[in-house]
Amino acid sequence: MPEMPEVETVRRTLTPLAAGKTIKRVDVWYDKVIVGDVKSFQQQLKGKTIEKIDRYGKYLLFRLGDLTIVSHLRMEGKYRLTTADAPREKHEHLQFVFTDGSALRYDDVRKFGRLQLVETGTERIVTGIKHLGPEALSPEFTEDYFAKALKNKTKKIKNLLLDQTVVAGLGNIYVDEVLWQAKINPVAEPKDLTKQQVQDLYEAINSTIKEATKLGGTTVHSFLNAEGQAGGYQDRLEVYGRAGEDCLRCGEKLVKIKVNGRGTTYCPNCQRLKS
């Protein structure tokens, strides 16, 4: 699933391609991609101009004045700019046809992604965004907030970091990476962590997300930005996808386990569980 750096990369590459374009019509080839009534979605968007594209967590927000399209890419959703009359590819489920003859198409092999049209200003009330906590690098995501969010929790630390109500935008890849950087075992509980470890984890989250975003995200399966380019952070991964290889810090073999059903790679030496 695209995580915060990937979705931010999509936003940055999509903005110069789509911002300023006016929607002539919307063709929907798979109704379930739309949350709500499809015909209403199509009718309300006629004549609307994409003013800008924002993002919160893993959600894209297409701003059209009084209306906003909230788009969640889920597992493999992606956008690409083409022409309105270009042959439709197998997994394309929707296209926004613009008045200049170009079209923005949504492609999703797994069909899990969704688009929802809401009144601007209500997106944090009526969509999944309402459940999200602050995102990494935001003014709200302070070290004090993070420490309090972990306090008295009995979940495993990996599960907490994947909990979007705690911090928005982190997924399996970056959680494995930040836990390795902070030398924290993925099944440790917050009560097992020292104040210094919590601080190290907070700093690792911010630095990793910042660097991954700078490099255009991580491509380990099918992620491409709006220009069809892969990310660059996969070349920096230190544990994710490296099970059985040597730890880059101590040389111990990396191990892969399941934590709440999620594949998890860590170093049994660097990330020892407190006894």
Question: What are its keywords?
Answer:
N-terminal domain of MutM-like DNA repair proteins; 275 residues; single chain; 5-stranded mixed beta sheet; Helicase, Ruva Protein, domain 3
At CATH level 3, the topology of the largest domain is N-terminal domain of MutM-like DNA repair proteins
Q: Give the integer mean of the pLDDT values.
A: 93
- State the separation between the terminal residues, measured CA to CA: 34 Å
Report the sheet with the most strands, covering strand number, pairing sense and barrel closure: 5 strands, mixed
The CATH superfamily of the largest domain is identified as MutM-like, N-terminal
Radius of gyration, in angstroms, nearest whole number: 20 Å
Strand order of the largest sheet: 2-9-5-4-3
Ranges where pLDDT stays below 50 over 5 or more residues in a row are: none
Strand content range: 15-25%
Shape: elongated
Please report the first level of CATH classification, the CATH class of the largest domain. Alpha Beta
Number of separate helices: 7
Q: Considering DSSP H and I runs of 4 or more, what fraction of the residues is helical?
A: 25-40%
User: What pattern of helices and strands is seen along the backbone?
Assistant: HEEHEEEEEEEHHHHHEE
Q: Helix/strand/pairing class, anyone? A: alpha+beta
Can you name the CATH architecture of the largest domain? Answer: Alpha-Beta Barrel
Number of individual domains: 2
Number of DSSP-assigned strands:
11
